[in-house]
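This section describes the prediction task in plain terms. A model, or a person checking by hand, is given the sequence of a single protein chain and must write out its three-dimensional structure as a string of tokens. No templates, partner chains or ligands are provided. The sample shown here is typical of the held-out split.
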Amino acid sequence: GFGPRVFGLLRAAAQMDGPARWSSGAGGAHHRVMKRRGQRLAACEVSGVSAAAALACAAAVSSASVTRDASPTFLLGAPVQRGAPMRLHCGQRRHVAAAQDLAGTVCVAGVALACRAAAGYRSRRRGLALAAQDPDSPVNLEDKPVSFVYTVPDEVDPEAKPPRIIFEGGKEVKDLDAPRPAGRSKDPDNLYFWKMSKDKRTIDVVVPLEDHIDKNDIVYRLGEDPMERSRGPNLELGYRYKTEDGRMKERLIIDGQLLNAIERDQSFWTIEEMAGVQVCVLTITRPSMMRRRHDPVLKSVVEEERIEPQTWDSLLVEDRPVPKITDRIYFDISLEGEAAGRLEFGLYGEEAPVTVKNFLGLTLGEYENEEGKMVKSAHCFKETAFHKVMPEFLLAAGNPGLDLITVELTPEQLVQYATEFMDQSKIPKQVGPVLPMWCIRWGADLGYMLDEFDGSYSKDGDAVKGDAPTREQVVGRLAGLAAEGKPASLIFFRPEWEKGCTAAGGTFEAEGTTVAHRKRGMLSMDRIEEKGTQGSIFFVTLKEFPEMDTRWTAFGELTEGWDLLDRIEKDFEKKPEEVVISDCGLVA
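The expected answer:
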């Protein structure tokens, strides 16, 4: 419930040269926040446990333990004990520390907000320079586990160039020594080499030249931009030479369409010498956009350059590697109960052998176990429905429904679960067969939720929102079921089965392949990114998808059934459950 105004107050207090006095207004408590100039430490005096008192504790810890899974309610309710470890939700990184020099109890929310304010709420910071001190005692940094001290500058040079951060898509380019896309020509008679720069902003193409060729002989032409926005123009690069009869001719070393779009106005060539060999170096600039992020309180400006996500597995479209298809399978599709046609896919058994073996087991209903025997699969794609149809994005299928389970709870267990569900300040506990990480869903005896916006009701398995009114409504219904004095059936979501399960009934580690999601109709496995595991849920891409490369495993492609794919994309966005795999198997 604390908004930007509170952050502004805390930041303003952190910049003051002298003590600042705040009044809570409600409890009459007064608080003093002192900054020791140049060291960015503060002292606080808390007289009361009101929210205002908690907000004013600007220096309760020497550093913070950051976690993604702490809820706002947990931050508001959990106390901090002197010398005890604690966890704060105040950034994107994870650190470990303990509360120090803290007398009494304060609210974790106040500490988190104070940490955010003092650190400028910047996820790039690697620590927090905060320590609670007696206002009259000297500050000693030697025994404090402080990884940095951030100081707001008194003066800012307006001529200073702001630092620049480069992103590729949503990922920051940090490791400049990481492997980079590179390659060479397939034709040894037209030799060239190419490699992406360390910061990923450009592609350098190197063409060896004979010594007698000078800059006036270079041929460099870029064709018109193609209709397909993601592709680049046709590139011609070579040189002119004089024949024996005195006529001038061109020899093109590179003549083909660039794989990805480029900034043609920022691409250029030079003639250089490398290892004693004269070369023409063509620098191709990738599309990007620039923006500046200003922080008026911290008086900082950061430039962000965001490069358009692209996959460079070759320089030219015609040189792009094409994986070998080792197996072919089919899905007979019914739409709204009527037979609609067949989708056929080719699988890349050499590129992703583990993924393909599992997919075949789920398609055929049987697989070869570790002992070499054919056994029945844990489930089969036959008679399963698609669960996502997202036009110009992807289709998703392969969910056996194991992520949703119906559980029967006794009246006593219903009361216990309602208590656990309502109080988010505590770590959830197991209630009967319901594990702590399971999430209740609409349906069964809990009933359904009316959407006041469009007048529709939720369906079985729909997620329960976490807002206070919804939580109160759920708790009220659970209490009503418990009052009836008989068991009730509830639907729960099990995150451990979120991505389905393998033919063997478990999950397996995602294979790291170099296969790109290079076109519409690519088969790709969904996975839990935090764990790197996958089960049975798969995607069919509806466009080229460089954002998915290296993150998800592409293991096949659509070979037949393009009209049916178009129909599903166009007509079944709001009813994916009507797209059913009525039969499946190997293509004869």
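For orientation: The first helix runs from residue 4 to 15.
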